[in-house]
Amino acid sequence: MSLPPDEVMQGYLEFFSRLMVATRLMAYEKVPHKQIADLMDAAHQMPRLLKNADDFDEDVVRLYFADFDRRWPDPKGEASITQILNECVGED
Question: What are phi and psi of 53, to 5 degrees?
């Protein structure tokens, strides 16, 4: 197993950090439990994918979060999870 290049790993670690903050804010805002569960469902494969560059497929990762954004649009119009991903790792 080999890790992705350092710049890829750093971008995704930043994304994961911001994702945890966004999740915590959702909990404070008392969003539906299903919304938080869906976000964690999208995120839970990230560590496994990142630890093996051969299995890492950025398109699959993006699909997970795009699907979450479609199901749970932000009513405040703030950054979607996909926007946060793009800020951290660049656009697809």
Answer: -60, -30
How many Å apart are CA 45 and CA 24, to the nearest integer?
A: 19
Total-model pTM: 0.86
Dist. CA 70–CA 74, nearest whole Å: 10
Secondary structure of residue 1 in the 3-state scheme? coil
Residue 91: CB atoms within 10 A of its CB come to 9
- How far apart CA 9 and CA 31 sit, in angstroms, is 30
The tens digit of pLDDT for each residue in 30-65 reads 899 999 999 999 998 888 888 887 877 888 889 999
How many alpha carbons fall within 13 Å on the CB side of residue 34?
2
Q: Which residues contact 8 (CB under 8 A, 6 or more apart)?
A: 56, 89
